[in-house]
Specification:
The chain is an alpha/beta fold and 240 residues long. It has nine helices and nine strands.
């Protein structure tokens, strides 16, 4: 297997991988370029450039610039996005049974998290309609923004206590299902309050600004809460 035929876990060979993808799966490479252009209209195309010493450089052609922009002049988030898109659109024969993506929010703008989830769902639906084996995709996250784009049934909460790791589904909490069904709170709100945790949060949370009734009720049910004097009056009013 050549160096570029598989994207390494850390993405160190992303340039070689994209060159291999361009040569062996032009449609996959075209779709990566298409999404990049849709998201960043000034980017005309991603180019992979082999060099005489056997290396591969990744560059972009952008509107208004006479020269290509080398990969080391772009942001880490842009490179991470290209790598993620190359996996999303990987040809079926190279697709794995499980893809694990660790905390994509570390590299991507919150708005791009919505795009990422949408593309994952789109490609999954395409595979389903084509009768292809479905790849399981697992994302770890600490981002309420990312969580807002999933359903409660898709979430597995993982936490560690006394050296042991516990994983469970928050969907087993009936009152959380009702809150979401009534559109009182989103999953990101529930994550922030600690309501998705397996056990009640021990840490206190300081609330100093206006907050709606639904948030107050979850905070009081799921964990300790410290309120400023200004908020105590509001809390008494909405819950009385």
């Amino acid at each position: 297997m050549s160096l570029g035929q598989v994207l390494q876990p850390g993405g160190d060979n992303v340039s070689a991988w994209l060159m291999w993808l361009q040569a062996h799966s032009p449609e996959s490479f075209r779709r990566v370029n298409e999404v990049i252009h849709d998201l960043f209209s000034e980017v005309v195309q991603i180019n992979v450039i082999p060099t005489p010493d056997g290396r591969v450089h990744l560059a972009t052609r952008e509107k208004g610039l006479k020269r290509a922009t080398n990969v080391w002049q772009t942001s880490d988030g842009f490179i991470a996005l290209i790598a993620l898109l190359s996996l999303i659109y990987v040809p079926p024969e190279l697709s794995g049974t499980v893809f694990c993506i660790e905390e994509p929010e570390n590299h991507l703008h919150p708005k791009l998290l919505e795009t990422l989830v949408g593309l994952l769902r789109q490609v999954r639906q395409e595979a389903l309609e084509a009768g292809l084996p479905l790849t399981q995709i697992m994302l770890t996250t600490q981002s309420p923004y990312l969580l807002d784009h999933f359903s409660l049934d898709e979430i597995v909460w993982v936490e560690k206590k006394n050296g042991e790791t516990f994983a469970y589904r928050p969907a087993n909490k009936t009152h959380l299902k009702k809150l979401i069904a009534d559109e009182e709170l989103g999953l990101g709100d529930l994550m922030f309050t600690g309501a998705l945790a397996r056990r009640k949060m021990n840490a206190g949370l300081v609330v100093e600004g206006p907050t709606d009734e639904a948030v107050y009720r979850v905070l009081l049910r799921e964990g300790k809460i410290l309120l400023s004097f200004a908020v105590l009056a509001e809390l008494y009013e909405v819950l009385s």
